[in-house]
Amino acid sequence: METVSLSPRLLAIATLVPQGAKVADVGTDHGYIPVWLVQRQIAASVIATDIRPGPLKKAVLSARKAGVEDKIKFLLCDGLRDCPPEETDTVIISGMGGETIRNILEAAPWTRCDGRRLILQPMTKPELLRLWLSNSGYAISGEKLVKEAGVIYPIILASGGKQPPMTRAELYTGRWGLISEDPLLGEYLEQLASKTGRAIKGLERSKRAEDRVRLDKLREAFEGFYLMRKKLISKREGKDDSDADSKNDT
Ligand SMILES: C[S@@+](CC[C@H](N)C(=O)[O-])C[C@H]1O[C@@H](n2cnc3c(N)ncnc32)[C@H](O)[C@@H]1O
User: Fold this and answer.
1) Which of 58, 125, 143, 198 has the fewest CB atoms nearer than 10 Å to its CB?
2) How many helices (H) and strands (E) does the chain have?
3) Does residue 52 belong to any structural domain of this protein?
């Protein structure tokens, strides 16, 4: 029997799953998270879904090699479409774009109900996902950053509920109150600022009206990253950080 070991990104996601959870891992691909959760007897049950047969076969093979094939339910489906809500209290959607994650959740409104826990790890557009979550009856209760091969990835914990609006910059980083203690925040802000700065330069050359709107939003986010960085430095130096950037924009 093979024991699965997880990369830092997958490990950070898997360790957020509480003991006894009924897990659905959407877009499982290699199936490492389901296998790891079963091997460590963390999950009470695991459903692994993928939209494509090739990745799902990979997941079955990983489970077979680990001797846990009979402990995981494999579903070939789009998102959570065939996933029984009553068999799921924890949904993992990781390694996909923020828009895909949003589309999967939009098609499964039951994920907002009964305190279900969502563990989401968008590879792109986390700002779009956070905005959608907060406008769609979800509250974000946790944020975590993880670094793998030089890249920093956000992990978002959410459940059904309400939350106050986030600033433009917080849509990219996660709410200050949830992220300010993260040891990777300073580095993440630098990455975001340099990416946003490049996008701003590109848009400044455009004459299209819709690009002006996008430009204004990016400038606001950029300024927010700068203010957040200042707050972070003050916080780390033990100074008061109560004059938070309070511009709300969703
Ligand atoms: C890059 S892999 C991520 C694998 C793993 N979750 C991770 O975080 O490493 C993305 C997987 O999601 C699957 N996928 C994409 N869209 C999907 C959807 N709407 N429903 C289910 N699976 C999907 C793809 O087939 C692929 O196997």
Assistant:
1) 198
2) 9, 7
3) yes
